[in-house]
Design a protein that fits this description.
about 325 residues, Cytochrome-c3 Hydrogenase, Chain A, domain 2, 5-stranded parallel sheet, 2 domains, Rossmann fold, two-stranded antiparallel ribbon, about 10% strand
Length: about 325
């Protein structure tokens, strides 16, 4: 008897970016990772060859209890409009809103996972006036209760597992599925927003390549500068829960490494910060968004000391698009140069 973790992946209101990210899994690649973890992908809209009829038949067998479903993965926001009817997003060939299919399948899947911030909290589709009435599976922004109620639990005893990110990292998805396959994801391994602690026990700040600039508060002034982007350019890496800079995409990529400020995309309501993403709001010259767990008075005192002690090398490099002053090479004692 097979003990594979059977996974069904659906897409709702989103861009498909989380699937694109998932396909970039490496060392090993996606298929090898799933095989090693004992995960069977029943269907994925980008990876499966099944016809529309075969797909609908699969859904019917799951809902009738004829096909075991261990993990339902939803990518994209739940589209409830117009007026709560769900008819903005109908599942082709069924004459039924996708939101109704999702709700029914959640009752049959042992575990339900929201893949990406759209599925977790509503994300980009619910920004602005939200004409599509988008929401997350179990959250509506930062408020508990989306398509499913706040006290909903899967047959496996867990709330919706929010693998948040925009897009989510392939490792966050495969790690979470592997934990479920091994029976090693208890509720205690989910944080306050039901995100897996395997990546949210870290901050984006951890492993940031600009940390030396941060320590001395040597700040970038424009997007092409090398300095820390927290003071002027809106970077939220000291508050964002994710390990992007400890395990970057494809071994090298992250927003900050690419020269763009962290916008805290694993958090609910990140899509509407109330100011431009690349600007840091301030009061009396002090950034509003300060590092997690640091009292404001301490930060101001430490920042003043750090700026006073900033080496000229960092002052110059922080506002340049390349290293203009390299670190000094000290010779060995007694060594003639």
């Amino acid at each position: 008897m097979s003990t594979a973790l059977r996974v069904l992946w659906l897409q709702s209101g989103g861009c498909g970016g989380c699937s694109m990210s998932l396909l970039n899994a490496e060392s090993p690649d996606l298929y090898a990772t799933l095989e090693l973890a004992g995960i069977e992908l029943l269907w994925h809209p980008s990876l499966s060859e099944a016809s529309n009829g075969e797909f609908i038949d699969l859904l019917g067998r799951i809902c009738r209890g004829e096909q075991t479903l261990d993990a339902l993965c939803l990518e994209g926001s739940v589209m409830r409009g117009p007026n709560g009817s769900g008819r903005f997003h109908m599942l082709a060939g069924t004459g039924r809103p996708m939101m109704h299919w999702i709700e029914e399948l959640c009752g049959h899947a042992r575990y339900t996972l929201a893949i990406g911030t759209c599925a977790a909290f509503g994300g980009i589709p619910m920004a602005g006036d939200n004409p599509g009435e988008a929401c997350g599976l179990q959250y509506d922004g930062d408020r508990i209760g989306g398509l499913l109620s706040g006290d909903w639990r899967s047959p496996g005893g867990l709330p919706v597992i929010n693998v948040a990110g925009c897009p989510t990292h392939p490792g966050w998805v495969t790690d979470t599925l592997a934990q479920l396959a091994m029976g090693e994801l208890p509720a205690s391994e989910l944080d306050a927003f039901n995100r897996p602690r395997s990546y949210t026990n870290h901050l984006v700040h951890h492993g940031c390549t600009r940390n030396e600039f941060y320590e001395f508060k040597a700040s970038a002034e424009q997007a092409s500068d090398q300095g820390c982007m927290m003071e002027h350019l809106g970077c939220l890496g000291t508050q964002a829960h994710a390990d992007c800079n400890r395990r970057p995409w494809n071994g090298e990529g992250s927003c900050i490494r690419g020269g763009y400020a962290c916008i805290n995309c694993t958090a609910p309501a990140f899509e509407e910060p109330g100011h431009p993403f690349t600007e840091t709001p301030k009061i009396a010259g002090i950034p509003i968004g300060l590092p997690t767990d640091m009292p404001k008075a301490w930060f101001v005192a430490l920042a003043s000391l750090s700026k006073a002690a900033t080496p000229q090398r960092l002052r110059d490099n922080a506002v340049a698009d390349h290293i203009v002053v390299p670190p000094t090479a000290h010779g060995r004692k007694g060594h003639k140069r």
